[in-house]
Model the fold of this input.
Amino acid sequence: MKETTPRPDRVFLLGVLLPGTEPERLDEQMRELAELTRTAGGEVVATDVQRRADIDPALFVGAGKVAEIAERHGELEYDLVICNEDLSPRQLRNLDRRLKVRVMDRTDLILDIFARHARTREGRLQVEVASLRHWLPRLVGAYDYNRQVGGVGVRGGPGEQQIEIERRRVRVRMRDLERELEQVRGQRERQRESRRVSELATVAVVGYTNAGKSTLLNTLTGAGVLAENQLFATLDPTTRRWRLPGGREVLLSDTVGFIQKLPTELVAAFRATLEEVTEADLILQVVDGTAAALDDQAETVDQVLAELGAADRPRIIAVNKADALGPAALRRVLQRLRARYPLVLPISALRNRGLERLGEAVVKATESELVAMELLVPWGRERILAELRREGVVDETTFTPEGTYLRGRAPKGALHRFRQYAAG
Done:
């Protein structure tokens, strides 16, 4: 019997250009929406943008545009329409009726991708909470069209069945999920506390989705994190030790990628995960140097960090994929970013280029937390020297009959372990 692979959903993308919105920014959002659609397994067959004074409260776009899209169904055979803005229950219901295909918005699509990519219990809980928060206002009477079909968008909501859950039951489920998440958050806080006890500096890797964060983490630490050329390939945070030039170690934590118009439900649901950023001693921001919308992406990351209360954290900008740029193009990219950030370095995470210099920059950026000390370590206690090299910096060593005299620096929290060897 011949097996056939189901064809991907054929998707029609729809946007609105409003007064005050730069056409270039909307173009980038629509390009990004197309990439999100492909990440979710869909095939974009058409993209349309209507210039309007405001969003139509009943149909999102004008009735004429909806009729035009409906007429093109025979030509394009699309299965799904995705709008670039959040839709109200009224808009969803009306578009469903007139187009007679499934309709979803940008947030629905992102939630669907998150649901597909979440691997850990915490990730799945966070996605379900975000989905329910998004769907709660729509659950009663939002749909007349039968949504019990497969394809893009069927995982983004609370389940894969037609959504007919009463609001009360949803709220009960959300309370249950929040209780479970509080337990998980407690576990994460205990993990962070144990890392504080380890007295190693923490570096949070942030950046726009698909900028190369996971590739960088893999190259620096051998973490084995999934790194694919698609948006939101990894959602679950990973923390690994990174040995810096000179031997000192820091803890490097990957985080979920940012994106334009990141749903507030996701920011709220992933609060525990994103707290890795607010708790970090240093933020390592990875930028895709080849991105056409580089400035918009940098602004998006800045906005999300500001929302998290982490805008004032020390930051290093790593311009990834620098090897894919010519010398002149790279100079222009570095110039633009250096006008915005104080420390910008070109790297290639995939080709392992520029990472030694990046490590040296991290050494310098995290040394401000170290305290100078002078030690005399007796012979036979060499493990103390190894600990100091791993957690701090050894600047000078001299061998004496009594043992090893050294000048160095260590984290404040580790001073108590070295105090008994203080010289003088």
